[in-house]
Protein backbone atom coordinates (compact mmCIF):
# COMPACT_ATOMS: atom_id res chain seq x y z
CA UNK A 1 0.00 0.00 0.00
CA UNK A 2 1.32 3.42 -0.95
CA UNK A 3 2.33 5.75 1.85
CA UNK A 4 -0.40 8.13 0.90
CA UNK A 5 -0.98 10.20 4.02
CA UNK A 6 1.42 13.12 4.44
CA UNK A 7 2.45 13.69 8.05
CA UNK A 8 3.08 17.38 8.67
CA UNK A 9 4.67 17.83 12.06
CA UNK A 10 4.20 21.17 13.76
CA UNK A 11 5.76 20.35 17.14
CA UNK A 12 8.32 23.11 16.63
CA UNK A 13 5.74 25.75 15.64
CA UNK A 14 2.26 25.08 17.07
CA UNK A 15 3.70 22.71 19.69
CA UNK A 16 6.08 25.33 20.93
CA UNK A 17 3.08 27.62 21.45
CA UNK A 18 2.14 25.38 24.39
CA UNK A 19 1.97 27.49 27.49
CA UNK A 20 5.05 26.58 29.47
CA UNK A 21 7.10 25.19 26.57
CA UNK A 22 9.99 27.05 25.09
CA UNK A 23 12.93 25.63 23.21
CA UNK A 24 16.29 27.12 22.33
CA UNK A 25 17.77 26.81 18.86
CA UNK A 26 19.94 23.77 19.59
CA UNK A 27 17.02 21.96 21.17
CA UNK A 28 14.87 22.69 18.11
CA UNK A 29 17.53 21.36 15.77
CA UNK A 30 17.84 18.24 17.93
CA UNK A 31 14.09 17.63 17.74
CA UNK A 32 14.08 18.30 13.98
CA UNK A 33 16.80 15.66 13.48
CA UNK A 34 14.73 13.15 15.43
CA UNK A 35 11.63 14.05 13.37
CA UNK A 36 13.65 13.34 10.22
CA UNK A 37 14.60 9.96 11.67
CA UNK A 38 10.93 9.33 12.39
CA UNK A 39 10.42 10.20 8.71
CA UNK A 40 7.70 12.78 8.97
CA UNK A 41 7.09 14.29 5.52
CA UNK A 42 7.07 17.96 6.55
CA UNK A 43 8.59 19.74 9.55
CA UNK A 44 7.04 23.11 10.30
CA UNK A 45 10.14 24.59 11.87
CA UNK A 46 8.76 27.92 13.07
CA UNK A 47 7.33 31.33 12.25
CA UNK A 48 10.44 33.19 11.01
CA UNK A 49 9.16 36.76 11.22
CA UNK A 50 7.94 36.33 14.80
CA UNK A 51 11.38 36.59 16.45
CA UNK A 52 15.08 36.52 15.58
CA UNK A 53 15.35 33.20 17.45
CA UNK A 54 12.59 31.64 15.39
CA UNK A 55 14.18 32.92 12.18
CA UNK A 56 17.54 31.45 13.17
CA UNK A 57 16.13 28.05 14.13
CA UNK A 58 14.16 27.73 10.88
CA UNK A 59 17.31 28.70 9.01
CA UNK A 60 19.45 26.11 10.78
CA UNK A 61 16.89 23.33 10.40
CA UNK A 62 16.50 24.20 6.70
CA UNK A 63 20.26 24.00 6.25
CA UNK A 64 21.01 20.96 8.38
CA UNK A 65 18.06 18.57 8.19
CA UNK A 66 17.66 16.51 5.04
CA UNK A 67 15.08 14.10 3.61
CA UNK A 68 12.04 16.15 4.67
CA UNK A 69 10.25 19.31 3.57
CA UNK A 70 10.84 22.22 5.90
CA UNK A 71 8.03 24.75 6.25
CA UNK A 72 8.03 28.28 7.62
CA UNK A 73 4.84 30.04 8.66
CA UNK A 74 3.85 33.49 7.37
CA UNK A 75 0.86 35.80 7.58
CA UNK A 76 -0.49 36.97 4.23
CA UNK A 77 1.86 39.95 4.16
CA UNK A 78 5.03 40.49 2.17
CA UNK A 79 7.44 41.01 5.07
CA UNK A 80 6.40 37.64 6.60
CA UNK A 81 6.78 35.85 3.28
CA UNK A 82 10.18 37.49 2.65
CA UNK A 83 11.34 36.41 6.07
CA UNK A 84 10.11 32.82 5.60
CA UNK A 85 11.74 32.64 2.16
CA UNK A 86 15.07 33.91 3.53
CA UNK A 87 15.02 31.45 6.43
CA UNK A 88 14.22 28.57 4.07
CA UNK A 89 16.80 29.48 1.44
CA UNK A 90 19.03 26.46 2.05
CA UNK A 91 16.25 23.93 2.55
CA UNK A 92 16.28 20.82 0.38
CA UNK A 93 12.49 21.09 0.00
CA UNK A 94 11.24 24.48 1.23
CA UNK A 95 7.56 25.19 1.85
CA UNK A 96 5.98 28.52 2.71
CA UNK A 97 2.82 28.19 4.80
CA UNK A 98 0.58 31.26 4.58
CA UNK A 99 -2.43 31.80 6.81
CA UNK A 100 -5.26 34.29 6.81
CA UNK A 101 -8.44 34.12 8.86
CA UNK A 102 -11.71 33.62 6.99
CA UNK A 103 -14.46 33.10 9.60
CA UNK A 104 -17.03 35.81 10.23
CA UNK A 105 -15.87 36.27 13.84
CA UNK A 106 -12.28 36.83 12.77
CA UNK A 107 -13.26 39.04 9.80
CA UNK A 108 -15.45 41.21 11.95
CA UNK A 109 -13.45 41.53 15.15
CA UNK A 110 -9.84 40.78 14.29
CA UNK A 111 -9.20 41.74 10.69
CA UNK A 112 -11.97 44.28 10.09
CA UNK A 113 -12.07 43.18 6.46
CA UNK A 114 -14.81 42.22 4.02
CA UNK A 115 -14.94 38.88 2.23
CA UNK A 116 -13.70 40.27 -1.12
CA UNK A 117 -10.71 41.83 0.54
CA UNK A 118 -9.79 38.56 2.24
CA UNK A 119 -9.82 36.71 -1.09
CA UNK A 120 -7.76 39.46 -2.69
CA UNK A 121 -5.13 39.37 0.08
CA UNK A 122 -4.94 35.58 0.06
CA UNK A 123 -4.42 35.40 -3.69
CA UNK A 124 -1.87 38.20 -3.64
CA UNK A 125 0.12 36.50 -0.87
CA UNK A 126 0.16 33.10 -2.60
CA UNK A 127 1.30 34.68 -5.89
CA UNK A 128 3.97 36.67 -4.08
CA UNK A 129 5.30 33.57 -2.31
CA UNK A 130 5.45 31.70 -5.62
CA UNK A 131 8.28 34.05 -6.58
CA UNK A 132 10.38 32.19 -4.03
CA UNK A 133 9.17 28.58 -3.93
CA UNK A 134 6.76 26.26 -5.69
CA UNK A 135 5.55 24.52 -2.58
CA UNK A 136 2.95 26.84 -1.07
CA UNK A 137 0.46 25.85 1.59
CA UNK A 138 -2.46 28.10 2.40
CA UNK A 139 -4.57 27.98 5.59
CA UNK A 140 -7.86 29.82 5.91
CA UNK A 141 -7.59 30.28 9.68
CA UNK A 142 -10.67 29.26 11.67
CA UNK A 143 -11.92 27.35 8.60
CA UNK A 144 -14.26 25.15 10.62
CA UNK A 145 -16.26 28.23 11.67
CA UNK A 146 -16.24 29.76 8.18
CA UNK A 147 -19.37 29.76 5.98
CA UNK A 148 -18.98 26.88 3.50
CA UNK A 149 -19.77 28.96 0.42
CA UNK A 150 -17.12 31.53 1.33
CA UNK A 151 -14.58 28.85 2.22
CA UNK A 152 -15.18 27.27 -1.21
CA UNK A 153 -14.44 30.63 -2.88
CA UNK A 154 -11.24 31.18 -0.88
CA UNK A 155 -9.92 27.67 -1.47
CA UNK A 156 -10.65 27.81 -5.19
CA UNK A 157 -8.95 31.20 -5.51
CA UNK A 158 -5.75 30.20 -3.69
CA UNK A 159 -5.45 26.98 -5.70
CA UNK A 160 -5.79 29.05 -8.87
CA UNK A 161 -3.07 31.34 -7.53
CA UNK A 162 -0.76 28.33 -7.12
CA UNK A 163 -1.26 26.87 -3.62
CA UNK A 164 -0.31 23.18 -3.70
CA UNK A 165 -1.79 22.36 -0.29
CA UNK A 166 -4.92 23.80 1.26
CA UNK A 167 -5.10 23.29 4.98
CA UNK A 168 -8.50 23.43 6.70
CA UNK A 169 -7.74 24.27 10.32
CA UNK A 170 -10.09 23.72 13.21
CA UNK A 171 -8.19 26.52 14.90
CA UNK A 172 -10.29 26.70 18.04
CA UNK A 173 -11.11 23.00 18.44
CA UNK A 174 -14.80 23.58 17.69
CA UNK A 175 -15.39 20.79 15.17
CA UNK A 176 -16.84 17.36 15.87
CA UNK A 177 -16.04 14.36 13.66
CA UNK A 178 -19.19 14.17 11.51
CA UNK A 179 -19.25 17.93 10.98
CA UNK A 180 -15.57 18.10 10.10
CA UNK A 181 -15.79 15.16 7.67
CA UNK A 182 -18.80 16.80 6.00
CA UNK A 183 -16.77 20.00 5.62
CA UNK A 184 -13.99 18.11 3.81
CA UNK A 185 -16.52 16.34 1.59
CA UNK A 186 -18.21 19.70 0.90
CA UNK A 187 -14.92 21.16 -0.33
CA UNK A 188 -14.23 18.13 -2.53
CA UNK A 189 -17.66 18.49 -4.01
CA UNK A 190 -17.82 22.25 -4.57
CA UNK A 191 -14.25 23.46 -5.20
CA UNK A 192 -13.82 22.99 -8.94
CA UNK A 193 -10.01 22.80 -8.98
CA UNK A 194 -9.64 20.79 -5.74
CA UNK A 195 -7.92 17.94 -7.63
CA UNK A 196 -4.95 20.26 -8.16
CA UNK A 197 -4.19 20.51 -4.43
CA UNK A 198 -3.69 18.34 -1.38
CA UNK A 199 -6.35 18.79 1.31
CA UNK A 200 -4.77 19.06 4.75
CA UNK A 201 -6.31 19.07 8.22
CA UNK A 202 -5.16 20.73 11.41
CA UNK A 203 -7.14 20.03 14.56
CA UNK A 204 -7.02 21.34 18.09
CA UNK A 205 -8.02 19.40 21.14
CA UNK A 206 -10.28 21.80 23.06
CA UNK A 207 -13.07 19.20 23.11
CA UNK A 208 -10.68 16.25 23.21
CA UNK A 209 -11.51 15.50 19.56
CA UNK A 210 -8.38 16.53 17.64
CA UNK A 211 -7.39 12.98 16.68
CA UNK A 212 -10.98 11.84 16.04
CA UNK A 213 -11.63 14.86 13.81
CA UNK A 214 -8.39 14.32 11.87
CA UNK A 215 -9.21 10.66 11.26
CA UNK A 216 -12.77 11.47 10.18
CA UNK A 217 -11.28 13.96 7.71
CA UNK A 218 -8.88 11.33 6.35
CA UNK A 219 -11.82 9.01 5.80
CA UNK A 220 -13.52 11.87 3.93
CA UNK A 221 -10.50 12.36 1.66
CA UNK A 222 -7.93 14.57 3.41
CA UNK A 223 -4.39 13.57 2.42
CA UNK A 224 -2.27 15.55 4.87
CA UNK A 225 -2.58 15.59 8.67
CA UNK A 226 -0.95 18.28 10.78
CA UNK A 227 -0.04 17.10 14.24
CA UNK A 228 2.48 17.31 17.07
CA UNK A 229 4.44 14.86 19.18
CA UNK A 230 2.60 14.09 22.44
CA UNK A 231 -0.23 16.33 21.14
CA UNK A 232 1.39 19.44 22.58
CA UNK A 233 0.22 22.83 21.31
CA UNK A 234 -1.72 26.00 21.97
CA UNK A 235 -4.29 25.62 24.81
CA UNK A 236 -5.42 21.96 24.99
CA UNK A 237 -2.99 21.05 22.24
CA UNK A 238 -3.01 19.63 18.72
CA UNK A 239 -3.77 16.20 17.30
CA UNK A 240 -1.14 13.77 18.61
CA UNK A 241 1.08 12.45 15.82
CA UNK A 242 1.64 9.09 17.50
CA UNK A 243 -2.10 8.48 17.84
CA UNK A 244 -2.89 9.45 14.23
CA UNK A 245 -0.11 7.26 12.87
CA UNK A 246 -0.91 4.22 15.00
CA UNK A 247 -4.66 4.51 14.36
CA UNK A 248 -4.04 4.51 10.61
CA UNK A 249 -1.62 1.59 10.94
CA UNK A 250 -3.67 -0.50 13.34
CA UNK A 251 -6.93 0.10 11.45
CA UNK A 252 -5.60 -0.11 7.92
CA UNK A 253 -8.54 -2.43 7.25
CA UNK A 254 -10.83 0.57 7.74
CA UNK A 255 -8.84 3.57 6.51
CA UNK A 256 -7.00 1.86 3.62
CA UNK A 257 -4.07 4.22 3.86
CA UNK A 258 -0.71 4.47 5.54
CA UNK A 259 2.15 6.79 6.38
CA UNK A 260 5.91 6.50 5.96
CA UNK A 261 6.53 6.98 9.70
CA UNK A 262 9.15 4.71 11.30
CA UNK A 263 6.92 3.82 14.24
CA UNK A 264 9.77 2.26 16.28
CA UNK A 265 11.04 5.82 16.78
CA UNK A 266 7.82 7.06 18.40
CA UNK A 267 8.82 6.52 22.02
CA UNK A 268 12.28 8.02 21.55
CA UNK A 269 10.73 11.07 19.88
CA UNK A 270 8.09 11.44 22.58
CA UNK A 271 10.74 11.25 25.32
CA UNK A 272 12.99 13.78 23.62
CA UNK A 273 10.15 16.29 23.17
CA UNK A 274 8.93 15.80 26.71
CA UNK A 275 12.42 16.20 28.18
CA UNK A 276 13.32 19.29 26.18
CA UNK A 277 9.98 21.09 26.53
CA UNK A 278 9.49 20.07 30.15
CA UNK A 279 5.92 18.99 29.32
CA UNK A 280 5.44 15.60 30.93
CA UNK A 281 3.43 12.87 29.25
CA UNK A 282 0.55 11.55 31.35
CA UNK A 283 0.99 7.87 32.34
CA UNK A 284 -2.18 6.72 30.62
CA UNK A 285 -1.49 8.63 27.38
CA UNK A 286 -2.29 6.47 24.33
CA UNK A 287 0.72 4.91 22.55
CA UNK A 288 3.52 6.73 24.39
CA UNK A 289 2.34 6.85 28.01
CA UNK A 290 4.19 4.75 30.57
CA UNK A 291 1.07 2.66 31.19
CA UNK A 292 0.07 2.26 27.52
CA UNK A 293 1.27 -1.35 27.53
CA UNK A 294 1.01 -2.19 31.22
CA UNK A 295 -1.56 -4.65 32.47
CA UNK A 296 -2.54 -5.05 36.07
CA UNK A 297 -5.76 -7.02 36.17
CA UNK A 298 -5.17 -10.74 36.78
CA UNK A 299 -7.63 -11.68 34.05
CA UNK A 300 -5.86 -9.46 31.51
CA UNK A 301 -2.40 -10.62 32.58
CA UNK A 302 -3.40 -14.26 32.20
CA UNK A 303 -4.85 -13.49 28.75
CA UNK A 304 -1.77 -11.61 27.55
CA UNK A 305 0.55 -14.36 28.76
CA UNK A 306 -1.48 -16.96 26.87
CA UNK A 307 -1.82 -14.86 23.73
CA UNK A 308 -0.76 -11.20 23.54
CA UNK A 309 -3.54 -10.18 21.16
CA UNK A 310 -6.25 -11.04 23.72
CA UNK A 311 -5.73 -7.66 25.33
CA UNK A 312 -3.24 -5.82 23.10
CA UNK A 313 -3.92 -4.30 19.68
CA UNK A 314 -0.38 -3.00 19.11
CA UNK A 315 2.95 -4.73 19.66
CA UNK A 316 4.84 -2.57 22.18
CA UNK A 317 8.05 -3.12 20.19
CA UNK A 318 6.42 -1.55 17.12
CA UNK A 319 6.32 1.85 18.77
CA UNK A 320 9.64 1.51 20.58
CA UNK A 321 8.50 0.22 23.97
CA UNK A 322 10.65 -2.62 25.26
CA UNK A 323 7.75 -4.98 25.83
CA UNK A 324 4.45 -5.51 27.56
CA UNK A 325 4.71 -4.71 31.26
CA UNK A 326 2.83 -6.83 33.73
CA UNK A 327 2.47 -4.78 36.87
CA UNK A 328 2.28 -6.94 39.97
CA UNK A 329 -0.37 -5.63 42.28
CA UNK A 330 -3.22 -6.92 44.38
CA UNK A 331 -5.29 -7.79 41.31
CA UNK A 332 -2.56 -9.91 39.73
CA UNK A 333 -3.02 -13.64 39.44
CA UNK A 334 -0.85 -16.76 39.66
CA UNK A 335 0.10 -16.70 36.02
CA UNK A 336 1.76 -13.27 36.14
CA UNK A 337 3.62 -14.02 39.37
CA UNK A 338 4.86 -17.35 38.01
CA UNK A 339 6.15 -15.56 34.92
CA UNK A 340 7.96 -12.92 36.98
CA UNK A 341 9.56 -15.54 39.23
CA UNK A 342 10.78 -17.36 36.13
CA UNK A 343 12.17 -14.12 34.68
CA UNK A 344 14.08 -13.56 37.89
CA UNK A 345 15.71 -16.97 37.45
CA UNK A 346 14.04 -18.97 40.22
CA UNK A 347 12.41 -22.36 40.04
CA UNK A 348 9.82 -23.14 42.67
CA UNK A 349 8.00 -26.31 43.53
CA UNK A 350 4.20 -26.15 43.51
CA UNK A 351 4.14 -25.94 47.26
CA UNK A 352 6.75 -23.18 47.39
CA UNK A 353 4.92 -21.25 44.73
CA UNK A 354 1.61 -21.43 46.61
CA UNK A 355 3.30 -20.08 49.72
CA UNK A 356 4.95 -17.36 47.69
CA UNK A 357 1.66 -16.42 46.04
CA UNK A 358 -0.11 -16.21 49.36
CA UNK A 359 2.55 -13.99 50.82
CA UNK A 360 2.64 -11.82 47.69
CA UNK A 361 -1.13 -11.26 47.85
CA UNK A 362 -0.86 -10.43 51.52
CA UNK A 363 1.82 -7.79 50.98
CA UNK A 364 0.20 -6.34 47.82
CA UNK A 365 -3.10 -6.04 49.66
CA UNK A 366 -1.53 -4.39 52.64
CA UNK A 367 0.23 -1.85 50.49
CA UNK A 368 -3.05 -1.11 48.73
CA UNK A 369 -1.15 0.75 46.08
CA UNK A 370 -1.54 -0.02 42.43
CA UNK A 371 1.86 1.45 41.76
CA UNK A 372 3.66 -1.22 43.74
CA UNK A 373 5.91 -3.30 41.61
CA UNK A 374 7.81 -6.33 42.71
CA UNK A 375 11.37 -5.76 41.69
CA UNK A 376 13.11 -8.50 43.52
CA UNK A 377 12.50 -11.83 45.05
CA UNK A 378 14.86 -13.17 47.65
CA UNK A 379 15.26 -16.53 49.23
CA UNK A 380 16.38 -16.21 52.82
CA UNK A 381 16.85 -19.48 54.75
CA UNK A 382 14.17 -21.34 52.74
CA UNK A 383 11.63 -18.65 53.38
CA UNK A 384 10.41 -16.48 50.49
CA UNK A 385 10.36 -12.80 51.01
CA UNK A 386 9.30 -10.19 48.54
CA UNK A 387 10.88 -6.87 48.22
CA UNK A 388 8.39 -4.31 47.16
CA UNK A 389 9.48 -0.98 45.90
CA UNK A 390 7.14 1.79 45.09
CA UNK A 391 7.77 3.70 41.88
ZN1 LIG B 1 -2.96 25.44 15.37
From TrEMBL:
Keyword Amino-acid biosynthesis recorded: yes
Assigned EC number: 2.3.3.13
One Pfam family per UniProt: HMGL-like
InterPro entries tied to this protein: 2-IPM_HCS-like, AIPM/Hcit_synth_CS, Aldolase_TIM, LeuA/HCS_post-cat, LeuA_bact_synth, PYR_CT
EC class: transferase
Protein family: Belongs to the alpha-IPM synthase/homocitrate synthase family. LeuA type 1 subfamily.
Protein name from the UniProt record: 2-isopropylmalate synthase
UniProt organism field: Candidatus Jettenia ecosi
